[in-house]
Write a structure and sequence with these properties.
Strand content: 35-45%
Number of helices: 2
Order of helices and strands: EEEEEHEEEEEEEHE
Oligomer: single chain
Number of strands: 13
Distance between the termini: 34 Å
Helix content: 10-25%
Length: 175
């Protein structure tokens, strides 16, 4: 597991082969026998996100489990603006790209190197309203028809990580 200093995840236990790794906020890894511990679920995702400390996008991907992903998106949705990219650990594509800003979000899907789609909004903003959200380190402008509440955007990401078919997550519009 690779952890970078700017992104602090909650303390957790991670089962790996015959060892248990305890990863804390100080990023220290302690190894020991795995006996007596329950295995960690296999729902893993690779995540690149805005640093909570610097407010800048960090492109290095972190391997996180479902619970850490939910916690991260919840924390990012509480800051002024943030951005997160999520893909399944075993696949380069598809990837979900989520721009967050003060409780709202825009969800994009990159299904290939040159293929992008926007998820239709949930009515959180009027279709005619213009909203700026962070994409990597730049603000991008979208109409309200693609805006959804950050909790609903998080739910889309969680369903994606849980293995739901992308097209069942809502109405996608090719860009």
């Amino acid at each position: 597991m690779l952890l970078h200093q700017p992104l602090v995840l909650p303390r957790r236990l991670v089962a790996r082969n015959s060892f248990l790794r305890v990863v804390g906020p100080d990023h220290r890894i302690v190894r020991g026998p795995r006996q007596g511990f329950l295995p960690v679920p296999d729902e893993r995702a690779l995540v690149a996100a805005t640093s909570l400390e610097t407010g800048r996008f960090i492109s290095a991907e972190l391997s996180v489990d479902r619970d850490d992903l939910v916690a991260l998106i919840d924390r990012l949705s509480m800051v002024e603006q943030a951005y997160v990219e999520v893909r399944l650990a075993n696949d380069e594509f598809p990837a979900l790209l989520v721009g967050l800003r003060r409780g709202i979000a825009v969800v994009q899907c990159m299904s290939g190197p040159e293929s992008m789609a926007l998820l239709a909004g949930d009515g959180s903003s009027a279709a005619s309203e213009v909203v700026d959200v962070l994409i990597m380190d730049e603000l991008a402008t979208f109409t309200g028809e693609y805006v959804r509440g950050s909790a609903r955007a998080r739910d889309v990401v969680v369903k994606f990580v849980d293995g739901a078919d992308l097209w069942s997550l809502g109405e996608w519009h090719d860009v």
